[in-house]
Design brief:
By secondary structure, this protein is α+β, with helices and mostly antiparallel strands. The chain is built from four helices and four strands. A four-stranded antiparallel beta sheet has the order 1-4-2-3. A hairpin with a 4-residue loop joins strand 2 and strand 3. The model has no long low-confidence stretch (mean pLDDT 82).
């Protein structure tokens, strides 16, 4: 995920969210926004099994029993066959789960 994606989504969220800082309750407002942003970030990297991932990338996949596997998708493992056989529900690129390495 790129910083531009996060900035874009934060601006979209700011446009649709009504401020809730009545009576000077800024801490609650900040906490709500932080929680919403954290949940969005966590969930934004996951894709339905119906979406075909790129080959040559390492995936973390979740099956119907909520068990997780690491999968490297290549030409010998067609995604449709693999996901159906293993009952995958969703997947994420491992690189999207790792912390950003950008300079601070």
């Amino acid at each position: 995920m790129k910083i531009e994606d996060i900035e874009k989504r934060s601006l979209e969220y700011a446009e649709i969210t009504a401020p809730t800082y009545a009576n000077g309750d800024f801490e609650s407002t900040i906490a709500d926004a932080f929680e919403h942003g954290a949940n969005w970030r966590i969930n934004s990297v996951w894709h339905s099994y119906k979406i075909k991932p790129d080959k040559g990338k390492l995936l973390l996949v979740e099956d119907i029993d909520s068990a997780y596997d690491l999968v490297y998708l290549n030409n010998s493992n067609p995604w449709e066959e693999l996901s159906k056989k293993s009952h995958y529900m969703r997947w994420a690129y491992v690189e999207d789960l790792l912390p950003n390495k950008q300079e601070e």
